[in-house]
Amino acid sequence: MAPHANQPELTDDQLSRVAKALADPRRYEILKKLGTQPCATPCSHMRDAIDISPATLSHHMKELETAGLVRSEKDGKFVNYFLQHHILRAYLNRLKADLA
Amino acid sequence: MAPHANQPELTDDQLSRVAKALADPRRYEILKKLGTQPCATPCSHMRDAIDISPATLSHHMKELETAGLVRSEKDGKFVNYFLQHHILRAYLNRLKADLA
DNA sequence: TCGATATTTCGACAACCATCGAATTGATGT
DNA sequence: ACATCAATTCGATGGTTGTCGAAATATCGA
């Protein structure tokens, strides 16, 4: 039985994507910010805090989303993002199991 | 007080290096292999298991070492590597604290 | 000393990736 | 319909990095 039964295992592809996603300092900052908030209006809020162009931010959010680390929800003109804690936990568990 | 008192905190530079080191599939395999063994004669043993050129392996080992994830010890013609579990643990703790 | 083996360094190449300006799409309010 | 604002897509650029062959360095045994 896995350490947390109802948590999905990460595929090798996901493992790689998550690791790469975490390896970029700007994406790390974005995740950190998302972790502190209930996550409203990302692009606007992010850009206040992180100093990044709209194009670059959009690119990073897509990376984070394909890695499964965030989920997005459209709200009219805006897009709201949510940190996916369970994917993060699955990644930590995998690292612990494989290496620690 | 930090979660594990006698564990060194990671600098931002180290955090970035460790994350990048973990993000390459081949380096991940190397670490996994190191984790299972008491670590003798790396380059020889690694190359049996991983199919990699000497030059590339040397390059990756250096990356892992500057990240602090492994320590090396010369033994005559050979070099022995040791997984640095405490750095790995520090990284996991940092991720947990920042994001989870 | 010499030849063999282990590892590193060098140099080059290709692939990947972060970055951003400009153009585009999509939604809102007037 | 139109102007405005949020966000994405496109295209280009510069920097990073994984890869390996070849040469260099280091150690050992004969």
Describe this structure in words.
- Two copies of one chain form a homodimer.
- Chain A has a two-stranded antiparallel ribbon with strand order 1-2.
- The first copy, chain A, is built from five helices and two strands; from the N terminus they run H-H-H-H-E-E-H.
- The two termini of chain A are 18 Å apart.
- Chain A has helices at 12-22, 25-36, 42-50, 54-66, 85-99, and strands at residues 70-75, 78-83.
- The first copy, chain A, is an alpha+beta fold and 100 residues long.
- The first copy, chain A, has one domain (12-99): Arc Repressor Mutant, subunit A (Orthogonal Bundle).
- Chain A is 60% helix and 12% strand.
- In chain A, a hairpin with a 2-residue loop joins strand 1 and strand 2 (78-83).
- Chain B binds a DNA duplex (30 and 30 nucleotides) through residues 20, 24, 26, 41, 43-44, 52-62, 76-79.
What Rg of chain A do the Cα atoms give? 14 Å
What is the number of domains of chain A? 1
* Pair with the biggest interface: A-B, 22 and 22 residues
Main CATH class of chain A: Mainly Alpha
Uncertain runs of chain A with pLDDT below 50, 5 residues or more? 1-5
Can you summarize this structure?
The structure is a homodimer of 100-residue chains. By secondary structure, chain A is of the alpha+beta class.
Topology:
Two copies of one chain form a homodimer.
Chain A: H1 12-22, H2 25-36, H3 42-50, H4 54-66, E1 70-75, E2 78-83, H5 85-99
Antiparallel strand pairs in A: 1-2
Chain B binds a DNA duplex (30 and 30 nucleotides) through residues 20, 24, 26, 41, 43-44, 52-62, 76-79.
